Automatic annotation (TrEMBL):
Highest taxon of source: Bacteria
Domain Potassium channel positions: 160-210
SUPFAM superfamilies: Voltage-gated potassium channels
Alphabetical list of Pfam families matching this protein: Ion_trans_2
Stored InterPro entries: K_chnl_dom
Upper taxonomic lineage: Bacteria, Pseudomonadati, Pseudomonadota, Alphaproteobacteria, Rhodobacterales
Entry keyword set: Membrane, Transmembrane, Transmembrane helix
UniProt name for this protein: Ion transporter
Organism the protein comes from: Paenirhodobacter enshiensis
Positions of transmembrane segments: 12-32, 38-58, 65-82, 88-111, 123-144, 186-207
Amino acid sequence: MAARFSAARNRVRANGLLLGAIVIHNLTYPLSGAGMPWPALFYAFYASIFVFGTWALSGSGGLRAGMAGIGLAVLAAGLANSCDPGPAAALAVYLSSILYHLGMVVVLVRYTFSGRQVMTDVLLAATSLYLVIGSGFAALLGLIEWAAPGSFVAGSGVPVGWQQLLYFSYVTMTTVGYGDITPVGFYAQSVAAFEAIGGTLYSVLLLSRLVGLHASRE
């Protein structure tokens, strides 16, 4: 009994740390554009978050090794883009970040939807999954803007960068839609619409899953 309680507490701690790290990453992205050593610290933190999450939440050796490799690619691409910005470095950041997010989505989907009880760790993992999907879409939207500049237009007239796309991604996924950033390109509009639909479906699927788990205990 004590061993089970300890294991459950460790799972809650791991998921809580992951969620906290994701929130901190999303709030500190502007550091990536500051002078050294801030970009190095930011990308080192970013490149370790999902690696830690995979090792804590998944027992798959393949996933662990794959995420460790992608994490190193994210770090290298981020540092290259900070030290010598250019189209190639930006492309490397977008592509590595998309793969990095996809890997974490796989880990969190398995963890969240394979649970047999509605426990605190499952709720924390589900919240992390929602945030990871949002920031993953930001990387995809950034890739679209890289491939077709002008795909997103800000009402204020300022250039649309990753920080603005991260904001736009969460606003879109939650279907708030302030309208201060507008997708004007075909691919930008298609992905934004897909994200809005996906965000709504995720909430519905998660709620039905949690209700089903709760009902099965009665």
